[in-house]
Amino acid sequence: MERTLILIKPDSIQRGLIGEITTRFERKGLKLVGMKMMHLNEAILLEHYAHLKDKPFFAGLKKFMRSSPVIAQCWEGVGAVKAVRILCGITNAREADAGSLRGDFAMSPQCNVIHASDSQETAAKEVSRFFKNSELFEYEKTEYMHVYAEDEIQ
Ligand code: UDP
Ligand code: MG
After folding, report:
1. Rounded-to-integer distance, Cα 51 and Cα 29, Å
2. Fold of 2-146
């Protein structure tokens, strides 16, 4: 089953949104398979945001991402990567759809409460960037019989 990475960003930590964000994914029916709090260093940010290294906001983005710890979570589910991105909303939070996390909780293209992997390929790289295998858990989620049709999870 698909796994995806999210980071609860420093603005969410400061604004007390950890529970709200985690609850959205839980209620959606996704399964939490890894979670930890960590300070991001320069090296991991350079790797994680390599696609943005030439952007004018890159230095500011790194400073923001180091301004307090983040919480990394790995969520699992059928089509989890896309489902999570939809719950997040578009990058510029001011214009994100109401009902999405960014739409409901943020006003900025930078302080947009959450990071989420944008494709299956990226998700695989990002999950292993933030979690060792021993930090990811396999367990039975009993509610699955009410979350998915039988043939979706075989
Ligand atoms: N970002 C920013 N200014 C911008 C665009 C992006 O500070 O104009 C930050 C923002 O925090 C965003 C992150 O850079 O979430 C990564 O950008 P990306 O384009 O990958 O957006 P995302 O995948 O997070 O929606
Ligand atoms: Mg991105």
Report:
1. 31
2. Alpha-Beta Plaits (3.30.70)
